[in-house]
Design a protein that fits this description.
It contains 25 helices and four strands. The protein has helices spanning 7-16, 24-28, 32-38, 48-51, 56-76, 86-108, 112-124, 138-146, 154-163, 165-170, 182-190, 201-210, 220-230, 274-285, 288-302, 309-322, 326-335, 350-360, 368-377, 395-398, 401-418, 424-432, 438-445, 450-458, 461-464, and strands spanning 233-235, 250-252, 262-264, 267-269. Helix 15 (288-302) packs across helix 16 (309-322), helix 16 (309-322) packs antiparallel against helix 17 (326-335) and helix 23 runs antiparallel to helix 24.
Length: 466
C-alpha cells in the first residue's frame, strides 16, 4: 500500500521549489526536509543549457562592435530614412538566448529549491533589462555573479554582484569621478567650468537595497562617502586615453578614484584604491542591519507576506552567528517550524505561476516566446522589474480582478496547447496531493472537457498559491 503524501511534501515542492511535476511528490515524500537540504550540497549546479552561452565580457565586446557599426552606418546614411538595426538585433539575440536558458532550466531542473534561490538573489540584486545594454547582460549577470555564490558567504555574493559589469553599467558607476581624483584635477585645469563629480546610484542601492535596508541606520553622508570609495570601479575597454583593462571585465580605474579616507557608519576606512570599497562591503555584509534585512526578505519570500517575527529573529541570529553563511541560513529556514505552518502562505507571482504550470504539464519551452508573451501579459516580463528594487513579493502587487482574468485567459490557452494528454483530476493529485480542497476537486471532476478541467486546476486557489 502506497504511503499517503504528506502535506509537508506539498509545501516542499510548491513553496520551497518551483512547483511539483508528476511523480515529484511521491519521490520526495519520505523526507521533504532532507530533499531540500540535499540541493544545497556539492558544487554549483549549472545546467548544460548555460554552458553554450557567451560570457559578459565577450558580449560587451560584441556590442561595442555593433555600436561602432551603427555609428558608421548612421554617418553613411544620414540623409536616408533607414535606421541601422545591427545593435538592436545583437542585444535582442543575447536577451532571448539567456531568457530561454533560464526558463528551460527552471521548468526542467531536479533541484528546484536551488533554482528558486537563484531567482530570489537575482531579484535582490536586481538589474532591469529596460536600459541598454542590460538586456544583453541580465542573464549573464545571474549566471556569473549569482549562481556560483548562493551557497557560500553573503560577502562573496555581495562582492561578485557589485563588481559585475552589468551592475556597474546599470547604476552608472563607470561615470562616477572623484572630485579630487587625478582626472578631475586635470580636467579642471583644462576646462574650469566643466563639472565632473560623483554618481551615488551604486552606493545608495547597496546600502538601501542590497545590505542594510531602508531603515538600516545609514545617512546621506554615508551614501556620499561610500560613493567616493566606489569611484574607479568600472569596466575595461574604451578608446584612446580611456582605454584600460580587459575589455568587458571589471577594471579599477585609479585615475578617477577619490583619494583619502572615508567615514561610513562611524568607522574610518583608510585603505587605498580598490581595497577601500572592498573593506566597506565586507563590513556591510556582516552588519546586524544587513542580517535583519536579508532574514526578513527570505522569510517573506518563502513563508508569508507578513512572516512571523519569531522566524525573522531566528534567521537574523543565524546570519550573525555564522558570519553571513548562506547555507546555514537556508538550513535554519528549512528547519524552522514556522516555515511549515499553513499550506498556501504565498500568492504566486506570474513567473511562479507560469513555471509551475509548465512543470505540472512536464513542458519545457524551447521557444521562449511562449513564456515571454505570458509573463509580459501578466506584468512580469523577464529581467524587467523596472527598478533596482526588483519585483514585489506580496499578493497585494499581483492580485486583482484584471490580473486574475489574464491568468484565466492564459490558462485556457496553455491547457489547449500543451495539456491535451493530461487527466485534470489525476494531474491535480500529482501536483497538489492532499492540499487539493474538496470544492476544487469537485469543480475539476465536473468539467465538461479535459481542457476546461485543466483550466479549472490552474486557476484554482490551491494552484494559484504556494
Amino acid at each position: 500500500m502506497a504511503t499517503p503524501v504528506k502535506i509537508e511534501t506539498v509545501i516542499a515542492a510548491n513553496r520551497f521549489g518551483l512547483g511539483a511535476r508528476p511523480g515529484d511528490l511521491k519521490s520526495i515524500n519520505e523526507d521533504p526536509k532532507s530533499w531540500l537540504l540535499e540541493q544545497l550540497s556539492g558544487p554549483p549546479r549549472l545546467s548544460h543549457v548555460f554552458s553554450v552561452l557567451d560570457n559578459s565580457a565577450d558580449i560587451l565586446v560584441e556590442l561595442e562592435k555593433a555600436r561602432e557599426l551603427r555609428r558608421q552606418e548612421k554617418k553613411q546614411n544620414e540623409n536616408k530614412s533607414r535606421s541601422p538595426k545591427s545593435y538592436g538585433s545583437t542585444v535582442r539575440h543575447y536577451y532571448m538566448q539567456q531568457t530561454t536558458a533560464r526558463y528551460v532550466s527552471a521548468t526542467s531542473t531536479d533541484y528546484p529549491f536551488h533554482e528558486r534561490l537563484v531567482h530570489f538573489w537575482s531579484n535582490h540584486f536586481a538589474i532591469s533589462a529596460d536600459k541598454q545594454p542590460i538586456p544583453a547582460l541580465a542573464g549573464s549577470f545571474e549566471n556569473e555573479a549569482i549562481r556560483p555564490n548562493i551557497s557560500g558567504k553573503f560577502s562573496d555574493l555581495l562582492l561578485a554582484a557589485e563588481k559585475h559589469p552589468a551592475m556597474l553599467l546599470y547604476l552608472d558607476n563607470q561615470r562616477s569621478v572623484g572630485p579630487g581624483s587625478k582626472l578631475a584635477r586635470k580636467a579642471g585645469k583644462r576646462q574650469p567650468d566643466r563639472k565632473i563629480g560623483l554618481n551615488e546610484n551604486l552606493a545608495r542601492e547597496i546600502l538601501e537595497l542590497h545590505t542594510l535596508g531602508v531603515d538600516g541606520g545609514y545617512s546621506q553622508a554615508d551614501v556620499t562617502s561610500f560613493a567616493r570609495a566606489l569611484t574607479g570601479w568600472s569596466v575595461g575597454g574604451g578608446k584612446g586615453r580611456k582605454q584600460a583593462g580587459v575589455p568587458g571585465r571589471f577594471h579599477f580605474r585609479k585615475d578617477i578614484h577619490e583619494p583619502g579616507s572615508v567615514e561610513i557608519l562611524g568607522k574610518y576606512y583608510t585603505e587605498k584604491d580598490m581595497a577601500q570599497a572592498e573593506g566597506i562591503l565586507t563590513d556591510l555584509a556582516i552588519h546586524p542591519s544587513t542580517a535583519r534585512h536579508i532574514a526578513s526578505k527570505l522569510a517573506r519570500h518563502f513563508v508569508a507576506d507578513e512572516p512571523p517575527v519569531s522566524l525573522i529573529d531566528t534567521l537574523t541570529r543565524t546570519f550573525i552567528k555564522s558570519g553571513g553563511d548562506l547555507k546555514s541560513l537556508y538550513t535554519a529556514l528549512v528547519q524552522a517550524e514556522e516555515a511549515w505552518q499553513g499550506v498556501f502562505g504565498k500568492y504566486k507571482t506570474p513567473e511562479d505561476f507560469v513555471i509551475s504550470t509548465f512543470r505540472a504539464f512536464e513542458y519545457v519551452p524551447q521557444n521562449v516566446r511562449t513564456t515571454f508573451a505570458a509573463l509580459e501579459m501578466m506584468g512580469q516580463a523577464p529581467y524587467q522589474p523596472g527598478s533596482p528594487a526588483g519585483w514585489p513579493d506580496t499578493a497585494e502587487q499581483w492580485g486583482g480582478a484584471d490580473s486574475l482574468y489574464k491568468r484565466i485567459e492564459w490558462s485556457n490557452g496553455i491547457a489547449r496547447k500543451v495539456g491535451k494528454r493530461s487527466d485534470p483530476l489525476e494531474l491535480a493529485e500529482f501536483v497538489l496531493g492532499p492540499a487539493l480542497g474538496q470544492y476544487s476537486r469537485s469543480s475539476i471532476a465536473r468539467a465538461e472537457s479535459l481542457d476546461q478541467g485543466l483550466t479549472l486546476l490552474l486557476v484554482s486557489p490551491e494552484f494559484q498559491r504556494r
